Amino acid sequence: MKTRVCRLYGQNDLRIDTESVPEPAAGQVLLAIAAGGICGSDMHYLSDGGIGTIRVREPIILGHEASGRVLRVGPGVTALAEGDAVAINPSRPCGACRYCREGLHMHCLAMRFNGSAIRLPHEQGLFRERVVVEAAQCIKVPAEADLGAVACAEPLAVCLHAARIAGDIAGKRVLVTGAGPIGALCTAVAARMGACEIVVTDLQDAALDVAARLGATRCINVARDGGAMADYAADKGHFDLAFECSAAERAIRSAIAALRPRGTLVQVGVTGDTPIPLNAVVAKEVQLKGTFRFHAEFAEAVEAITSGRIDVRPIITQRYPLDQAAEAFVTAADRSRSVKVHLTLFA
Fold first, then answer.
1. Burial classification of residue 26, based on how many CB atoms lie within 10 Å of its CB (0-12 exposed, 13-18 middle, 19 or more buried)
2. CATH of domain 156-290
3. What pLDDT does 273 receive?
4. 11, 179, 213, 229: most buried, per Cβ within 10 A?
5. Which of the 8 DSSP states describes residue 88?
6. CB 169 within 8 A of CB 237
7. What is the pLDDT of residues 72-91, one digit of tens each?
8. What is the pLDDT of residues 265-288, one digit of tens each?
9. Which fold has domain 2-152+312-344?
10. What is the C-alpha to C-alpha distance for residues 61 and 340, in angstroms, rounded to an integer?
11. Which residues share a beta bridge with 51?
12. The pLDDT of residue 135
């Protein structure tokens, strides 16, 4: 069997190739990929040749947000059958290292993650029509599930983990800086968990419009209304909790200024080294918390999507077939008109 794949050869060198697909071995399944979401990491790999010190050193199939249908099962697989619709967890911790044994699977020392260039050889991704994966990576979803929405389980899992790091959200005043896919989904999670106020900031109206649909009580375009955050910084701050999803220095400073004493800043967005106002962190006793990937939250995200508890569909702003992947990446990089762009690979 042959399949088309979306492979990156180096900076700004994205190609659609054809390769053979093996038969599923014991414990594996052959999937037809239904939808795949373009993530910020995919875009950085393409436009910059990597992310920070992580560089693309060999051809890599991109993509780690995906859903699909089972075409064949390998020996020993009993929990899945031909035709099943599934969410695909790209995270494969070893289960044996000291962090896995402590329940910190997202910090696994031997983590394998689809579409990641951290290790060499790189872990190949999911932007392909057909792929063999471990059956354990798959969570069966109802046959009638929207597989585009199901493909958003990975970014939603990131946000559910961030919410777990944050602690109790019910009744809290929440700030979300950056209304890309992660910021929009953090907004949805905060709304679902009972935040009494959710203010979202961004530079683009299109992204803020999506955040409003997902539960924001106020949206502020800081490019146009940069002074609007000043009121929230008065009297040592207003918000109990901030999800910082942009990794922009200006947004981080604004979030710390707007947090009340002993408020919590959960840093979700990532970039290179970034200065932060340590004096303000100390003087206001701000709790600064990092959050990284997910583990149990992936299954929780799938359940939230398929049950309808969290509607992720508003973040999906465009869909492209695989052979238009280059155009899809251009659109994904244009935040004035896109939030989450999907490749649709199988009807």
1. exposed
2. 3.40.50.720
3. 86
4. 179
5. E
6. no
7. 999 999 999 999 999 999 99
8. 999 999 878 999 999 999 999 999
9. Quinone Oxidoreductase; Chain A, domain 1 (3.90.180)
10. 19
11. 54
12. 98
